[in-house]
Specification:
- By secondary structure, the chain is α/β, with parallel strands linked by helices.
- It is 43% helix and 17% strand.
- It has a two-stranded parallel ribbon.
- The N and C termini lie far apart (46 Å).
């Protein structure tokens, strides 16, 4: 079977979940499947990019909080925070393009506007002060944000691969030996060698 050439990112998308499951065409094309996964997971690092992922444990969130925040919007907030920290550290400015979601489109825009105007609310317990600290985290390095369609954006497709493969890695119990996670992790932002809280955020 010969696969027709398609203009990737110009109306055509390779679904990360299809690669993960090995469904459809990929069921009988394991070599091609692995090569595609390799290309998408190594692209950011190969082209001098930096990646960020945030994970929300929905079950733990509902168990820990009586009125839990929307996990979708919470993930968006965490990504804004991670990108802000990176842009501040590198003295740069950036934009965010997130995948189109017709159901949440207005909510996503409202959340993004609120984050840029007011910052995010940080609540944590300080062991040094021995008290609960509440403060706003200023987000002033992200100058623009908009929705995009993944079939028209290779960047959004790469983001889909990162989120899908991270989800699979966490769901499988974070196996100590996982070549795909190692490739993904190598492009995540690290500050002073630290990954957790910078390029990777897991909550709660």
């Amino acid at each position: 079977m010969e696969c027709a050439r398609q203009p990737l990112g110009l109306g055509y998308e390779i679904k990360a979940r299809d690669i993960l499951r090995g469904s459809g065409f990929w069921r009988s094309h394991e070599d091609e499947r692995n090569k595609i996964r390799e290309i998408f997971l190594t692209a950011p690092k190969k082209y001098s990019g930096i990646s960020f992922v945030s994970i929300i444990n929905k079950k733990a969130l509902k168990k820990q909080y009586s009125t839990p925040a929307d996990p979708y919007l919470l993930c968006l907030e965490f990504i804004f925070e991670r990108l802000q920290m990176f842009l501040f550290d590198t003295d740069d400015y950036g934009i965010i393009i997130y995948d189109q979601n017709k159901t949440l489109e207005n909510t996503l825009h409202d959340t993004a506007i609120s984050l840029v105007r007011e910052g995010s609310l940080l609540i944590y317990f300080s062991k040094i002060l021995n008290e609960l600290v509440i403060k706003h985290f200023k987000i002033d390095r992200i100058v623009e944000f908009s929705l995009g369609r993944s079939e028209n954006s290779i960047g959004l497709q790469i983001a889909d691969f990162f989120s899908t493969m991270t989800y699979a890695y966490v769901k499988e119990g974070k196996p100590s030996s996982c070549i795909w996670w190692e490739k993904l992790e190598s492009s995540l932002y690290k500050k002073d060698g630290k990954l957790l809280g910078f390029g990777y955020k897991e909550f709660p």
